[in-house]
Amino acid sequence: MKTIKLDIIDSTNTYLKENRSIFEDFTFVRANFQSSGKGREDRKWISPKNENLLFSILIKDKNVIKNFKALSIATATLIARFLEILGLENVMVKWPNDVYANGKKICGVLLEGNVKQYIVIGVGLNVNQKQFLGDYKITPTSISNELSKDLDINKLSFNLFKFLDKHLHQKLLARNTLRFYKKHDYFLGKFVETKNGNGFVKGITDEFDLIVDKEVISSGEINFKEND
Ligand code: BTN
Predict the structure, then answer these.
(1) Residue 52, SS3 per DSSP
(2) In this structure, how many other beta carbons lie within 10 angstroms of the beta carbon of residue 86?
(3) Residue 120 in contact with residue 17, Cβ under 8 Å?
């Protein structure tokens, strides 16, 4: 594992994608600030300087890439496990790539790349941010809001990177992820609207696809909105 720390960059995902030929497998890039942070579905990921963890991981190992359908959920699930170890309560994984704490979003994952060559896993984890001004569709939270104390971001990132490096390499990643996910399934039993209709979420398949009544939604087609 190699770790690079940048002060300001457009996006750690873009940086790793552009420099993927010179960086080794499992290079972690972290930034204090992103001027063009990207979220899913062309949204922006805005985060004040030095308050949160913004990082990306370059994956070149074919044995890890072959799990690409599980990688987004696996990363979110590993972060959920890490947050539980830190002492956060009511941590849930929201298929296919968000982590919630007490019903609020604390972390988002954005996967980019080309499954034949490489994958970049981007993670935005709210750490010390207290106030979230702006128009959020989903109420955000942070570790410090949940634990009522500030954390040392350098220490936290060191421990989290070690944890992710260890577990993302695991042969049983998909199986263990599935097991943890099922116990921390944010969507289970919820009524959601999908592209083809709506229904209650029954869980996920062993291939990490979402089951909504009789419909199976692949993690590749995740364009649906939740009806709370
Ligand atoms: C989401 O929409 O929930 C995913 C957000 C992912 C944000 C992270 S921050 C680090 C990395 N670089 C980016 O530009 N985006 C991801």
Answers:
(1) coil
(2) 15
(3) yes
Q: Report CA Rg, the chain.
A: 17
User: What is the pTM for the complete model shown?
Assistant: 0.94
| Distance (Å) from CA 1 to ligand 1 centroid | 21
Take residue 224 and report the two structure tokens written for it: 């649906």
- Cα dihedral 223→182→212→168 (10° resolution): 30
Predicted local confidence at residue 137, as pLDDT: 83
Q: Residue 175, CB half-sphere, CA atoms under 13 Å: how many?
A: 3
What are the φ/ψ torsions at residue 140 (nearest 5 degrees)? -90, 160
Ligand 1 mean position to 110 CA, how many Å? 5
Phi, psi values for residue 169, rounded to 5°: -80, -15
Strands 197-204 and 191-194: antiparallel
Mutation test residue for ligand 1: of 5, 36, 38, the one with most atoms within 8 Å of CB: 38
Average pLDDT over residues 149-168: 97
Ligand 1 atom with the smallest distance to the CA of 41 is 2
CA gap 91, 186 in Å, rounded: 9
Q: Cα separation of 221 and 206, whole Å?
A: 17
- Residue 213 Cα to ligand 1 midpoint, Å, equals 30
Residue 181 clears pLDDT 60, i.e. is over it: yes
More confident residue, 111 or 68: 111
